[in-house]
Amino acid sequence: MIKEVRTRFAPSPTGYMHIGNLRTALYAYLFARKNNGKFILRIEDTDMERYVEGAVDIILDTLKTVGMDYDEGPIVGGDYGPYVQSQRKNEYMKYALELVEKGEAYYCFCSKERLENLPDVNGARKYDKHCLHLSKEEIQAKLDAGEPFVIRQNMPTEGKTKYHDMVFGDIEIDNSELEDNILIKSDGMPTYNFANVIDDHLMNITVVMRGIEYLSSTPKYNLLYKAFGWEQPMYMHLPPIMKDAQHKLSKRNGDASFADLLEKGFLTEAIVNYIALLGWSPKGNEEKLSMDELKQMFGVEGISKSQSIFDEQKLRWLNGRYIKELDFDKFVSMATPFLDKSKVAGKYDYIKLCKLIQSRIDTLGDIPDLVNFLEEFEAFDNELYTHKKLKTNPDVAKDVLPKVREKLASLDDWNETSIHDTLIGLVGELGVKNGIVLWPVRVALSGKASTPGGATELADLLGKEESLRRLDFSMELLNK
Q: How much is the pTM?
């Protein structure tokens, strides 16, 4: 049993927030909260070649947006700071030199050319421990001469290294498969692998969650813990999120980041909810879960060993549920920027529009396409009047629309109620079902098979002058 749960999210500031990264952060956060532990944020910026300006702000903003409050990290501080690796540079060299003294690591002065000429075994060039055999005098002479060097981990060549993963169980690797990893690079900065171990120990991290790609390399980390005489953390490796059965999600392949999904009109709560279910299943059947519910329900036993497929259609469905349950005033506030991007921007009553569209969209990004017809009206196929269930067709429309036009033209008080009463009154006069009148009017006013709202709402939105103009245009189309 873990005495104190301390999880961490340790992203590299290399740009956008990948969906996979966000899920790792979420699981680490939920596990900490479920077990009354601490969730730590650490920025791993030792690879300066990949550093992207502003990426740290993206990480901080994303965590704040989704509601993952970290207990220690940049901005909030803590007892184990600093929480940015580049600010801890001196720590790593000290520990690397300790390993050199113990014979668990060694200086390597090999040139790039020599490394490139190592034998190629199964598509990889494994380092041959050449510099391990240098004498202390040779090493000191090279250091005094200012020769560039790295510090490598001295891996055992025999035996096995075994550890227990909380998801995948016992994992065992032949030590002969392990390469002498570089711990300190020639610029004096630590590699990701080495800094990771040092920081996890110094920050007292007790549970490490990360992608399954580290499952087979974790023995390298554990050998470092063993060399220092430190207690190893518990490990939880997570299966990948896939685009399809063969391809992982990748920004390079055009797959959406968290920011992209927000821009498409997905709600933060829906994204978090959906990502939580990509690789973890709650005990019940409910799929719509709030952050508080996730905190209460999350557990290792629900984590799958199999990869998950990111299905945007499933996310759309879940997002639609969230939108439909939004407080109306909040929906108006969230929908307004998307209405402002549409062709109806500033031309219609947004409150009226929102009442019509809230139940008819799955993402906020659907809004422009749904409402643009209010400003885009052109010739359409008369077959749209055909509705088998309502038993209407172009001939019915040709008969009904002139009568509708006459009735609406005589209306002095143009509003939803008066329009409705007028159309239903005509239904009564004609002795037909509602759809015989309302469907042709809806098509004639929109030129679409699907609209937010029916004939009455559309006429009210468009106003009397535009409604009559569209009726005239549509009747002309019918008579061509």
A: 0.91
Q: How far is CA 148 from CA 110, 142, 187, 261, 398, in A?
A: 9, 8, 9, 45, 88
Peptide bond into 82 cis (omega under 30): yes
Among candidate residues 102, 226, 251, 391, the one labeled active-site is 251
Is residue 259 within 8 Å of residue 240, measured between CB atoms? no
| pLDDT of 253 higher than 70 | no
The share of the chain scoring above pLDDT 90, in percent, equals 85
Respond yes or no: is residue 251 known to be catalytic: yes
Whether 10 shows a pLDDT value over 80: the answer reads yes
Question: Is a pLDDT exceeding 70 seen at residue 28?
Answer: yes
Give the other-Cβ count within 10 Å of 63's Cβ: 22
- DSSP sequence for 411-431: -SS-SHHHHHHHHHHHHHHHT
217 neighbors 196 (Cβ within 8 angstroms): no
Give every CB contact of residue 284 below 8 A, 6+ residues apart in sequence: none
Structure tokens at 248: 């992982």
